[in-house]
Design goal:
Keywords: Coiled coil. Residues 279-306 form a coiled coil. The chain has helices spanning 102-105, 111-122, 142-152, 189-196, 244-269, 271-305; strands at residues 14-16, 38-40, 49-57, 78-89, 92-97, 155-157, 160-171, 177-180, 200-212, 215-223, 229-231. With 306 residues, the protein is α+β, with helices and mostly antiparallel strands. The protein has two domains: 8-122, no CATH class; 142-285, no CATH class. Strands 6, 7, 8, 9, 10 and 11 form a six-stranded antiparallel sheet that branches. β7 and β8 (177-180) form a beta hairpin.
């Protein structure tokens, strides 16, 4: 990996450290300072990892792509994707990317293609599995479980309080999707419908508070079934004074290696109770919908009878 350096003269993508000082990100006709990916030793719950940044140059803006008289280096911005690589044992690695945007990840000469090339250079049988993730949630029922916990027992653990479910997506049996925003609870008929029809729920926008010693950390994230997440930067509060880049790195590592695994553990610890409770939740959603539409029908009939 260290030998595959980014090269401006050829607009060749490559690898370096995640150091932000002088990175030139977002600049045209620029390349990052020379550096190499770095191995960082384990720190409590954060495992030993290789931290690397894949630098590449964006495509030319519209209007410049067919202009042969312009040096492409003068119009293409330097961009990057960070990757955290940890060992899972048995020859397996876990990859945590700084973006979920597939068009960036899956480019022909992009970050995943480069990683696959590096892996195959040592073992032709190695490859990246894009459909399995060691970060993934236990199962998709965890989203309904979180909604129920928010209603009945928002204090998930001594140090985690589920403050709000800001939004959730659902997918029915014909793969049609729906998005609920601006607060989700069991008073919303469209959410009750998704529960009653046993739609697949997720991703989910959640707000929660985490106690660390005497300090409180507040988070808002979009949580995906594969364990990936999107940080709502303006709604994150941490007591530490960190610049933007350090803040995002620290928050991402805490979510991936400390907090989201806790959600899995809490869900698994509640599994025996949840098997029974889940059925009750679905049945009550059906009953609530029946009562609501019966009442609406009565109101409509009275209006028609006038």
């Amino acid at each position: 990996m260290a030998e595959k350096k980014p090269l401006l003269s050829e607009l060749r993508a490559g690898w370096a450290s995640i150091e932000n000082e002088g990175s030139n990100l977002g600049q045209v006709n620029a390349e990052p300072p020379e550096s190499v990916p770095e191995i960082v030793e384990a720190d409590l719950e954060i495992p030993r990892m290789l931290r690397a940044r894949f630098y590449y140059w964006d495509a030319p803006p519209a209007g410049f792509r067919e202009n042969q008289d312009i040096d492409p280096r003068t119009v293409r911005k330097l961009n990057a994707i960070d990757v955290m690589i940890t060992s899972q044992g048995s020859g397996k690695l876990a990859l945590l990317f700084s973006t979920r945007t597939r068009t960036y990840l899956n480019r022909k000469m992009g970050v995943i293609a480069s990683l696959n090339s590096i892996l195959k250079s040592t073992d032709a049988n190695q490859a990246i599995d894009r459909y399995e993730s060691p970060f993934r949630l236990t199962n998709e029922e965890i989203f309904l479980w979180l909604a129920v916990q928010h209603r009945d027992k928002p204090q998930l653990a001594n140090d985690i309080f589920l403050e709000k479910i800001e939004g959730i997506s659902s997918r029915d049996r014909t793969s049609r999707t729906a998005d609920l925003r601006y607060g989700v609870d069991f008073d919303r008929s469209n959410f009750l419908t998704a529960v009653a029809e046993k739609d697949t729920l997720g991703p989910m926008d959640i707000c929660f508070i985490r106690d660390v010693g005497t300090e409180k950390f507040s988070y808002e994230v979009k949580l995906h079934f594969d364990g990936g997440f999107e940080i709502k930067r303006n709604n994150i509060l941490v007591p530490e004074e960190l610049n933007h880049n350090d803040f995002m790195l620290t928050t991402s590592l805490d979510l991936a290696y400390k907090i989201i695994p806790r959600f899995n553990i809490l869900y698994q610890n509640d599994a025996a109770k949840w098997r029974t409770q889940r059925v009750d939740v679905i049945e009550k959603a059906m009953s609530a919908l029946e009562a609501r539409y019966k009442s609406l029908r009565q109101v409509l009939q009275k209006q028609l009878d006038k």
